[in-house]
Amino acid sequence: MTATDRTPADLLRSALAADPARPLVTFYDDATGERVELSVATFANWVAKTANLLQGELSVEPGDRVALLLPAHWQTAVWLLACSSVGVVADVAGDPAAADVVVSGPDTLDAALACRGERVALALRPLGGRFPQPPAGFVDYAVEVPSQGDRFVPYASVDPDEPALIVAGREFSGAEVVERARDEATGLGLTGPGSRLLSGLGYDTWEGLSAGLYAPLATGGSVVLCRHLEQLGEGALDKRIESERVTATSR
Questions:
Q1: Which end of the chain, N or C, is more open, meaning fewer C-beta atoms within 10 Å of its C-beta?
Q2: Per-position b or e across 120-136, b if 16+ CB within 10 A of its CB
Q3: Coil, strand, or helix at residue 121?
Q4: How far, in Å, CA of 226 to CA of 240, rounded?
Q5: Under a CB-based contact definition with an 8 Å cutoff, are residues 139 and 121 in contact?
Q6: pLDDT-based confidence at residue 127 (cuts at 50, 70, 90)
């Protein structure tokens, strides 16, 4: 990470330059038993493909609003960084009717229909699998994203002082996301490269986004992101903390 990083996308570029092979996001779904580990390079590749989908196929422009109706999930993290790469506003759990694009998980498709712009559906199946039957009125992310380019170049430069994120009614610029993530990292137990934070928090609050993505990214650390962590017993949690070499927890 460098002092010149002003947006979350900048943080990812610096992480990729520093150590592309290290783990960045390890995701567990304790309702299904799913585990996915993404290195910085793999995560950045998903971000580039998703940003190309946003910019090229969905025709979004800097300042447009993308409502993310998604849970704490590795694919949600990808979308957050893709939005930052393009310069659009990621509106977490935002009103689809007020958004230019909506990105929905399988449980919020009905609500997402209120969006009059492009609608993208994520099945959130293991390994990024597609819907068995594509939902009517939506683009299936898992069908569209593989063919997108592996490198992303924005049509317009991203202004770090423009709005980049809305969560729980609060708006942040890209620069504010980076600054807050760095400032809060020590309090989360992130002491620098090699730190590994286990988070069971949702992505519907700043605290959940900071612990579950931004603070680890801003400090050269990594996150073990756990969905449905309440379904995991204490003994099993202790084993996970040990096996994943977790250095701090937020739950």
A1: C
A2: bbbbbeeebebbeeebe
A3: strand
A4: 11
A5: yes
A6: confident
Sheet architecture: strand order including 222-227: 34-39, 23-29, 222-227, 196-199, 248-250
For residue 165, give the nearest of 57, 79, 251 by alpha carbon.
79
Q: Is 33 exposed, middle or buried (0-12, 13-18, 19+ CB in 10 A)?
A: exposed
Confidence of residue 4 (pLDDT cuts 50, 70, 90): confident
Packing angle, helices 74-86 and 40-52, rounded to 10? 60
Q: What is the pLDDT of residues 30-44, one digit of tens each?
A: 999 999 999 999 999
Can you tell me the distance from the alpha carbon of 226 to that of 28, in angstroms, rounded to the nearest whole number?
Answer: 5
Residue 92 and residue 165 in contact, taking contact as beta carbons nearer than 8 Å: yes
Neighbours of 137 (CB within 10 A): 11
User: Which structure tokens are listed for 96?
Assistant: 């689809």
The SS3 call for residue 120 is strand
Output the DSSP codes for 200-219.
Answer: ---SSSHHHHIIIIIHHHHT
Q: What is the rounded radius of gyration, in angstroms, for the C-alpha atoms of the chain?
A: 17
Q: Show the tokens assigned to 91.
A: 């509106």
H helix and E strand count, the chain: 9, 12
C-alpha span between 72 and 86 (Å, rounded) = 21
